[in-house]
Amino acid sequence: MTNGWTPDDMPDQKGRTAVVTGANSGIGFVTSRELARRGARVVLACRDETRGRAAEDLLRQQVPGADVRLARLDLADLASVRSFAAELPEERLDLLIDNAGVMALPQRRTVDGFEMHFGTNHLGHFALTGLLLPRLRNAGYGARVVVVSSFMHVMGTVDPRDPQLDRGYRRWTAYARSKSANLLFVHELARRLAADGSPVVAAAAHPGFAATGLQTAAVRMEGRQRAERIVAGATRLVAQSAEHGALPTLYAATAEGIRQDDFIGPGGPLMRGAPARSPRAPWTRDAVASAGLWRLSERLTGVRYGGPAGV
């Protein structure tokens, strides 16, 4: 599909504005840097301002003259999501990259009381996208929402009877369900955009197995230093770099021919290689499940999408 596509194949992004969540490290940083390198104005949406400022400085070093700025966004706090959207000065937005996430954490709750994976990876991005969608509409043709999911979504889907694992918490199940929620969200958003005749395209991407820092976050949080060293060493041996892991996101965001509800990932063996359309679990295209999750997400976040088809 992509014949070895690299960031050098990206179309010119001058005059376009992008918001990238989780832009301070890993795939988010590489995505932001490459968009800036091609001329886009990039808003680095980061939870930790100190780490965000360091990332902004590094990006400017790597891309002299880059048009980037930092804005605080904590997806685990809906008040922060609303503040970010309200304070964003741009009246039009060409790209929204819903990239930030948490992985396999000990049981935690967001500020609003949601299970951390479901609340951060899905509900925070659901609310952010809904609040920023009018600006994406203002950009017209070429505007895209790209939600970063994971191949690990195949480990489980959202249980509508227990979406936040109140009946029994398992960290990898929580992560997998949140990544399925990402794909269900994109599926329903794409359906609504198409029904509304909107030029905005909603797609998803995944990095394969890429070294992004997520792998060691949980054991570091728990103070398990030996486990952290083991996980970090294994990741270095097996995973591809964040540079390569960012390719599917960049492709989904900028390449020609991206369709509503596309899912882009590494096209080679062992979840490596140039970006291509990726297989996905059949439940992530379930119309009843995606509509049900949408209604639940609106109720939990208080964010309702407008427009004739609900977008």
TrEMBL record:
Keyword RNA-binding: no
InterPro entries: NAD(P)-bd_dom_sf, SDR_fam
Swiss-Prot/TrEMBL keywords: Oxidoreductase
Family matches, as SUPFAM superfamilies: NAD(P)-binding Rossmann-fold domains (SSF51735)
A Pfam family matched in the record: adh_short
Single GO term (MF): oxidoreductase activity
Name under which the protein is recorded: SDR family NAD(P)-dependent oxidoreductase
Organism: Streptomyces mobaraensis
